[in-house]
Write a structure and sequence with these properties.
Layout lengths: L2 H12 L13 E5 L2 E4 L4 E4 L14 H13 L11 H13 L6 E6 L2 H16 L3 E5 L8 H5 L5 H4 L9 E4 L13 H18 L6 E6 L2 E2 L5 E2 L2 H14 L2 E5 L23 E4 L10 E6 H4 L15 H16 L2 H22 L3 E6 L4 E5 L8 H13 L2 E2 L1 E3 L3 E4 L7 H20 L14
Parallel strand pairs: 3-15, 5-6, 5-7, 7-10, 10-11
Antiparallel strand pairs: 1-2, 2-3, 4-12, 8-9, 11-12, 13-14, 14-17, 16-17
The structure holds 4'-deoxy-4'-aminopyridoxal-5'-phosphate.
4'-deoxy-4'-aminopyridoxal-5'-phosphate binds next to α4.
GO molecular function: 4-aminobutyrate:2-oxoglutarate transaminase activity; identical protein binding; pyridoxal phosphate binding
InterPro entries: Aminotrans_3 (IPR005814), Aminotrans_3_PPA_site (IPR049704), Class-III_PLP-dep_AT (IPR050103), PyrdxlP-dep_Trfase (IPR015424), PyrdxlP-dep_Trfase_major (IPR015421), PyrdxlP-dep_Trfase_small (IPR015422)
Keywords: Aminotransferase, Pyridoxal phosphate, Transferase
Length: about 450
């Protein structure tokens, strides 16, 4: 029996189903750069790095060294009780590298989910208002607060209600809702009317604490908010004294070809959540926000034993060093152009490739049927075949291929990934692909 199978059989019995997004019957044993390897020694190109929180690649030597050096000095002493040098340095650095020429403060957490919970708390504390407005298709996390403001999967909310009260979802400007030939600005105006509808019918704006948005939705399908829509929403929050926050957990830290996805819009948000790749996959998140908002709550309103843990903070300092030293934000933009060329060409060549959205080394590629409708089965066949050919890719919302390799992927590895994708596309076109024979193959 293969090592993969042995470990998986045990895991299937012990791990709760709800804790998994399941894809392939493999066990990841080790990784280096853009390559991950399973327990049977098979190598795969990782095209899922934003999800797996490894923007700068697996086991980067600088991060490994920083973790090891810090672990020799001090692994943990609750930062909420006593400061430690590295956590303090990281907080200062995050203030410096986030947009906004105003005074800021930082709240560390253990996950993107609890960072977004903290945003809700601070916004409510600051405004003395209760309502939170977020968007359909958003993923903000898996705690009760962050689930309550998410809108991406029925299985996340099924059976667990009631959710946090006074959380309202408005339609995200997903291009599936765009009328044929509708310009960016017309689309923005029309969707902004939908945004305002609750405010005109039952939701007093002066009772709304927070609007939170992913400037480019990640798990919702890699979808960028139109510029004008973003400006209209932002201005609306200014007009009504509402805190404007962005979730950069998925799309931040260079993923989109800019340091933060909100940088595409030239807006400095009141608050921002950061996580995932911040500490190259160690559990660390942060909220960076305006000082007056972040100081609205008293101790100990948002305390976690290991939030800002020194080893995770050292990993984050090294991760930010690597992003800068290896010029990875610019690299994301540059390699993103190669990805755009490849996928746009593929969209010309293969009828089943629909909308292609590429922002940096970061893409959502829709797979459609003859009528142009989402084709979830074809998408599943594709990702399974891509896996067999040696690359790890998953789908979003059923029919979107998610393309997010580590920003350190070499051009040779990228070409190899394109070769694998081309072969899978050819085989789908030829009708030779079948669905995987496993019950362990579900997505979001
Ligand atoms: N926000 C966004 C945009 C995310 O993509 C995620 C994770 N997919 C989260 C929040 C939650 O982060 P975590 O899983 O670390 O709690």
């Amino acid at each position: 029996m293969s090592e993969n199978k042995k470990i998986l059989d045990e895991e299937k019995i012990i791990l709760a189903d709800a804790t998994r997004v399941k894809y392939f019957d493999i066990v990841i044993d080790h990784g280096q750069g853009a390559i991950i390897s399973d327990a049977d020694g098979n190598d795969y190109i990782d095209l899922l790095a934003s999800a797996s929180a490894t923007n700068i690649g697996h086991s980067h030597p600088k991060v490994v060294a920083a973790i090891s050096n810090q672990a020799k000095k001090l692994i943990q002493y609750t930062p909420a009780y006593f400061a430690n040098p590295v956590t303090a340095l990281l907080a200062k650095r995050l203030v410096d590298i986030t947009p906004g020429n105003f005074q800021k403060q930082v709240a560390f957490g253990n996950s993107g989910s609890d960072a977004n919970d903290a945003i809700i708390k601070f916004a409510r504390g600051y405004t003395h208002r209760s309502y939170v407005v977020s968007f359909t298709g958003a993923y903000h996390g898996s705690t009760y607060g962050s689930i309550s403001i998410s809108g991406v999967s029925l299985n996340m909310t099924r059976k667990i209600g009631p959710l946090l009260p006074n959380t309202i979802k408005v339609p995200f400007p997903d291009q599936n809702q765009r009328a044929v030939g509708e310009s960016d600005d017309d689309f923005s105006d029309r969707l902004f009317k939908q945004f305002k509808l609750p405010f005109e019918t039952y939701l007093p704006a002066d009772e709304v604490a927070l609007v939170i948005i992913e400037p480019i939705q990640g798990d919702g399908g890699i979808i960028k908010v139109p510029q004008k829509y973003m400006s209209l929403v932002y201005e609306f929050t200014r007009e009504h004294g509402i805190v404007f926050a962005v979730d950069e957990v998925n799309q931040g830290l260079g993923r989109t070809g800019k340091m933060w996805s909100i940088d595409h819009f030239g807006i400095a948000p009141d608050m921002m959540s950061i996580g995932k790749s911040l500490a190259s996959g160690l559990p660390l998140s942060a909220v960076v926000g305006r000082k007056e908002i972040m100081s609205s709550l008293s101790a100990p309103a948002n305390v976690y034993t290991t939030a800002g843990n020194p080893v995770t903070a050292a990993a984050a300092m090294a991760t930010l060093d690597v992003l800068a030293e290896e010029n990875l934000v610019a690299r994301s933009e540059k390699l993103g152009e190669l990805a755009r060329d490849f996928f746009e060409q593929a969209a010309h060549s293969y009828w089943f490739i629909g909308d292609v959205r590429i922002y940096g080394l970061n893409g959502g590629i829709d797979i459609v049927d003859e009528k142009g409708q989402p084709d979830n089965q074809a998408t599943t066949k594709l990702i399974y075949r891509i896996f067999q050919l040696g690359a790890i890719m998953i789908s979003l919302r059923g029919n979107t291929l998610r393309f997010q390799p580590p920003l350190v992927i070499t051009e040779a590895q990228l070409s190899q990934a394109f070769k694998i994708l081309t072969q899978a596309f050819n085989e789908l076109e030829a009708g030779t692909l079948s669905l995987p024979e496993t019950d362990n193959h579900i997505g979001w």
